[in-house]
Amino acid sequence: MHLVQPHINRSWSAAARQNWNKLFNALRDQLRIDDVLYGPLDLAFPWQVRIQHAENLISSLANVCGFAPSQHADTLTWASDGSMLPFSAGILDPKMVTGAATGTQTLVTKIPGSNISILHGELARLILALVLSESKGTINRCKSRLLTDHLNTVQLVEDSRTGIDQTARLRFMNGRSYY
User: Fold this and answer.
1) Closest CA to 7 of 23, 25, 19, 20
2) Backbone phi, psi, residue 36, to 5°
3) In the chain, what are the domain boundaries?
4) Cα–Cα nearest to 83, from 108, 57, 55
5) Is the model's pTM score more than 0.70?
6) pLDDT at 98 over 60
7) CA-to-CA distance for 104 and 133, rounded, in angstroms?
8) How far apart are CA 122 and CA 152, in angstroms?
9) Is the CB of residue 3 less than 8 Å from the CB of residue 28?
10) How far apart are CA 26 and CA 79, in angstroms?
11) What is the chain written as a DSSP string?
12) Using an 8 Å Cβ cutoff, are 97 and 111 in contact?
């Protein structure tokens, strides 16, 4: 961390100068990022770094989990699905959301908690499929396809092809950070 000394002039009292020097030295020598950040430390990284880390983690998990690839997959076709158990869980009830993607690789993830919904599973599995298809180096992205039953995403993709900016729409969508 780089701290800049302010211009200390005669208007500062001797006590103010002494206190500023103590504070400056304490901040320079003893302040750590977790002293001012509440939550996981990786939130202090730029979002591009967090995205790259997440994509690398997804690719690595697919390589080590050992799930069989789809028997019907070619390098251009991917499929995904999400689910939640129990499906009738209320907003504060504990639940388990599952997201799965398959193609030339397969990955299944589970997200436990009470503050999750089926939307998390649906969007997580879409992200899995997109990251895995990218990691396999799909040569012609224009011809690749992702089979999904998530109507909100299908409509969003179709609407984005119209050339109309979807930013305002995304601002108010549930799960906007996933999109």
Assistant:
1) 20
2) -115, -5
3) 1-31, 41-148
4) 108
5) no
6) yes
7) 8
8) 10
9) yes
10) 54
11) ---------TTS-HHHHHHHHHHHHHHHHH--HHHH--S-GGGGS-HHHHHHHHHHHHHHHHHHH-PPPPTT--TTEEEEEEEEESTT--TTS-EEEEEEEESSSEEEEEEEESS--HHHHHHHHHHHHHHHHHHTT-S-TTT-EEE---HHHHHHHHHHTTT---HHHHHTSTTTTT-
12) yes
pLDDT digits (tens, 9 = 90+) for 47-91: 899 999 999 999 999 999 988 888 877 778 888 888 888 988 888
Length of the chain: 179
Instruction: Indicate the residue type of 80.
Output: S
Question: Residue holding tokens 């939130």?
Answer: 43
CA dist list (Å): 82 to 44, 97, 142: 30, 7, 25
